[in-house]
Amino acid sequence: MPESIPESLPCVQAVLPDLPESPHSMNAFVPVPGLPRDVQVTARGWTAAEAADALFDGIAAIRARAGIQQAEVRDARLLTLMTTYLDMAVRKEDFARVKRLHKAVKLIQAGAISQDAPDSDIYFVLSQTEPSKTVYTVVGKHCDCADGQAHTEEPTYRCKHSLACWLYDKVQEPR
Ligand SMILES: [Zn+2]
After folding, report:
1. Of 155, 156, 158, nearest to 166 (Cα)?
2. Tens digit of pLDDT for each residue in 120-169?
3. Distance 43 CA to ligand 1 centre (A)
4. Which of 26, 74, 133, 136 has the fewest CB atoms found within 10 Å of its own CB?
5. Pick from 35, 37, 39, 42: which is nearest to 4 by CA?
6. How far apart are the CA of 105 and the centre of ligand 1, in A?
7. Ligand 1 mean position to 160 CA, how many Å?
8. CA angle, 73 as apex, 4 and 165 as ends, to 5°?
């Protein structure tokens, strides 16, 4: 919704037109080069899917407004992947996964992920709550965090750390 983005970054509301009381709200924080802190994007909608759509319109508008281009190809690829997988999660009405995807992207943008060795499927992820203390180990889909351990019976489940490593790997190696 570019027309609703005011000139004054860094606080932006991307609100669906004529739906000021729409019940679903989503937030994202977008790093913008040259600004001291992340730009907050808030989007609302009658459904979570509408809110997610509005959120991505808002993020795209900010990035366009900030003139973010070739230098952030990796970021752009990440955003494209995130949009694709968010859309899939929304279609399945798996809104917990939508939230984990947002957190996964934040982990990547925070530089919290490292790979054991090139081509290894072992990754280390710094905790967002205790970055100096806690490192989670992700091997394939499996993570040793509490959320990962609580879902070991679900073969397709990925916690936010596992999602982050999966996206990180895809962003590193364009096909
Ligand atoms: Zn985890």
Report:
1. 158
2. 889 999 988 776 778 999 998 999 999 999 999 998 899 999 999 999 98
3. 27
4. 133
5. 42
6. 14
7. 6
8. 100
